[in-house]
Amino acid sequence: MAETQTTPVTELLNELLGSYWAGYAQHRTHLVLVESWGLHGLAAGMAQRIADEPVTIAAVLNRLLDLGGRPDFVVAKPAIGTSLREVLENDLAAQRGARPGLNQAAEVAAAEHDATTRILIETVLADEERHLAWLDTELSLYHRLGEPLYTAQRLAVATAATSPAPA
């Protein structure tokens, strides 16, 4: 077994792993809550946006191992909402909080001349930005429409008509 190495990059990858596991637990719990409330349309949108989180966790973990590091991270307590508004607000706060850490991680990787890790982190950051924009839009709609109308709009899963109805 190879000796493990602790470097600024392996430390930041462990920090990211802890953050991603906490975020994934929060997002999955919120998804189940939203489904249990019958908001299947919103749940489908949430599921689509978190589907790649296990892939991201595996990519970060594999990079850590490739660099000779070992998993040594702490998973923070997820911020679980108890209402639709809290679910959206907590997920938005988590996404907003991820951006500075990912930017800092990319800078550390660049300073350590580790382009592979920097590119991985920048790819994750781009995905987080898309998730952030979606959540920001959802919360904005929630506030503009009010909970009853927003909820009514998020009950059913949107489907695309594939062909006109028979005559």
TrEMBL record:
Q: Which residues bind Fe cation 1?
A: 53, 128
Single Gene Ontology BP annotation = intracellular iron ion homeostasis
Q: Which UniProt keywords apply?
A: Iron, Iron storage, Metal-binding
Q: Which residues form the Ferritin-like diiron domain?
A: 3-146
Q: Where does Fe cation 3 bind?
A: 52
Which superkingdom, per the lineage? Bacteria
Top EC group: oxidoreductase
Supply the SUPFAM superfamilies for this chain.
Ferritin-like (SSF47240)
Q: Which residues bind Fe cation 2?
A: 53, 128, 131
Q: Which GO terms describe its molecular function?
A: ferric iron binding; ferroxidase activity; heme binding
Q: What is its EC number?
A: 1.16.3.1
Cofactor (UniProt): heme b
Q: Which reaction does it catalyse?
A: 4 Fe(2+) + O2 + 4 H(+) = 4 Fe(3+) + 2 H2O
**Family annotation (InterPro entries):** Bacterioferritin (IPR002024), Ferritin-like (IPR012347), Ferritin-like_diiron (IPR009040), Ferritin-like_SF (IPR009078), Ferritin_DPS_dom (IPR008331)
Establish whether keyword Acyltransferase is in the entry.
Answer: no
Family the entry assigns: Belongs to the bacterioferritin family.
Q: What does this protein do?
A: Iron-storage protein, whose ferroxidase center binds Fe(2+), oxidizes it using dioxygen to Fe(3+), and participates in the subsequent Fe(3+) oxide mineral core formation within the central cavity of the BFR protein shell.
Record's protein name? Bacterioferritin
**UniProt source species:** Frankia torreyi
